[in-house]
Amino acid sequence: MTPVIDIKGVEKTYKKRIKALRGVDMTVGKGEIFGLLGPNGAGKSTLVKIMMTVISPSKCQGTVLGNKVGDKATLRHIGYLPEHHRFPPYLTGRQVLEHFGAMSGIKRKQRKAKASELLELVGMGSWHKDKLGSYSKGMRQRVGLAQALMNDPKLVVLDEPTDGVDPSGRRDIRNILTHLKDEGRTIFLNSHLLSELEMVCDRVAIMVHGLVRTQGTIEELTADQAGYAITTSTPLDQSILSQITTQPNMPKLIESKDQTKIIFKTDNAESIQPAIDTLRKNNITIESAGLKRPSLEDLFMQVVDKNDGSKPGAISGAKASKKGANS
Ligand SMILES: Nc1ncnc2c1ncn2[C@@H]1O[C@H](COP(=O)(O)OP(=O)(O)OP(=O)(O)O)[C@@H](O)[C@H]1O
Ligand SMILES: [Mg+2]
To answer: Whose CA is nearest to atom 9 of ligand 1?
Structure first.
């Protein structure tokens, strides 16, 4: 894997006490769609801002596109959609794109053509003469994505690109991301929409309280929890469960909090037939049986619960702070 982002030990303490990042290691390969997820206040945007040189890290080793983190010249090859962006409301969609194109050093004629192409790509072609102030949240987000592509970037960094975008717009954005990947670009995105990430990401990292707790492909991260699941119409009591588990050669049960679902650690349908026989003998109605893998949402909840990530900013010695000036 050729790394496009390769960072180690990234730390950020705001105002000498808010430990937003506590030693983040992360590698993103060329041509990947990489998803960073985590609860509110986990430190995702802080990490993005450090990579985009918007804020300085307290500690950081590593590179982005082969250059040291903090190198301003590297930004020429990066497209960035910031979280909560505020483009001037008096500019039209086209003017925003042309403005960012000009800042990236694209010649006037080229940037006009590029702006038209990108406005079409994000479905805003017919709105190009309207001012941003008249756009909905999702429309501003689409223009924000287009602006991140003006400089023909090798790496595209998107902080919650589908925030406020309707379902068909989210599907359009997924298609755009896949198209960008097919062109050989690398995409790094933050999102809370786990089902969206599950559909497009090659790899994900889950961050809780300023540390990456797990990273890899969704298959890798859920492999040891894949198994045969049987769901029943009524909850299973302890006596039925012990009738099942005491049968010879039964695969091990994976813990399931849901009493109408049992999951066996096996991918062999044959081996769970005795369990089905036992349930039927006890007149239990089986609603479904099949091979199941935890969803990204299941995995996220497990990682967050394990690391007590339910409270934003609940890092020892630090309180959730109001986001303000970049310090
Ligand atoms: N400028 C700032 N000054 C002080 N504290 C800050 C600042 N920006 C962020 N923080 C704090 O740093 C921590 C991480 O915030 P960050 O915005 O990186 O989280 P996040 O994972 O992006 O959250 P969300 O999912 O809500 O966008 C939080 O505790 C936050 O309050
Ligand atoms: Mg954020």
So the answer is: 323
- CA atoms 77, 61, 4, 32: torsion sign: negative
Beta strand pairing status for 155-159 and 3-14? unpaired
- Domains and their CATH numbers in the chain: 3-221+299-306 (3.40.50.300), 227-292 (3.30.70)
**Ligand 1 atom showing the smallest separation from residue 318 Cα:** 29
Q: What is the pTM of this model?
A: 0.85
Question: From ligand 1's centre to the CA of 301, what distance in Å?
Answer: 20
Q: Is the pLDDT of residue 33 over 90?
A: yes
Q: Is 191 exposed, middle or buried (0-12, 13-18, 19+ CB in 10 A)?
A: buried
What's residue 309's pLDDT? 64
Q: For residue 46, report the distance from its CA to the centre of ligand 1, in Å.
A: 6
Nearest to 147 by CA among 134, 174, 165, 128: 128
